[in-house]
Amino acid sequence: MLLSPYPTTGERIRITLLWLWCGMVILFLLVPILVPVPLSFNSGAFFIFPLEGISTRWYAVVLGTQRWQSAIGNSLIVAFGTTLIATMLGTLTAIALSDEKFPGRRIVMPLLLSPLIVPVVITAVGSYLFYARVGLAST
How far apart are CA 31 and CA 40, in angstroms? Predict the structure, then answer.
C-alpha cells in the first residue's frame, strides 16, 4: 500500500493504529525478558528481587563447567546444521513451488500446509502416543 503525499485522516488513523499494534507486539515479546536477564546478574544464592548485588557468578558457573560447555557446543552444532538444512530445503521448495509447471506441486503443497490445518492438540496427542509406545513418555 503506497501512501499519498497528502494522507487523509483515515489513512493517518490507520497508520497510527498500525504503529501502536506493532509496538504492543514488540512489548509482548520483550517484556518477559526484562525479569530473568537482570536476575541472572544476582550475586545471591537465590534469584530474588531486589538484587543482593551485581555479579557474573552464574555465568562463570555455567561457562566454567565442562558439562555445560559440551551441551552448549552440541546445541550450537545442531542449531547451525538445522538452520543450514532448513534454509536449503525451504529455498529449493519455494523455487519449485513458484513454478506452475512443477509436476509435484499438487502433492507437495498440501503436505506443507498440513501443519497449519491440523490442530496442535491432535499433533500433541499423536506425538504423546508415539513416545509412550516406544517408552519415552516420561523421560
Answer: 16
Which cell numbers hold the place of 23? Answer: 509496538
In the chain (139 residues long), the average pLDDT of successive 10-residue segments reads 75 92 95 85 78 84 89 96 97 90 88 86 90 86
Sign of the alpha-carbon torsion through 16, 20, 25, 29: positive
72-92 per-residue burial string, b: 16 or more CB within 10 A, e: under 16:
eeeeeeeeeeeeeeeeeeeee
Report the chain's C-alpha Rg in angstroms: 24
Instruction: Note the pTM of the prediction, 2 decimals.
Output: 0.56
**CA dist 21 → 3, 16, 28 (Å):** 19, 9, 10
d(CA 33, CA 65): 25
CB-CB contact of 40 with 59 (8 Å): yes
In 1-19, which positions are buried (b, 16+ CB within 10 angstroms) versus exposed (e)?
Answer: eeeeeeeeeeeeeeeeeee
How distant is the alpha carbon of residue 52 from its chain centre? Answer: 32
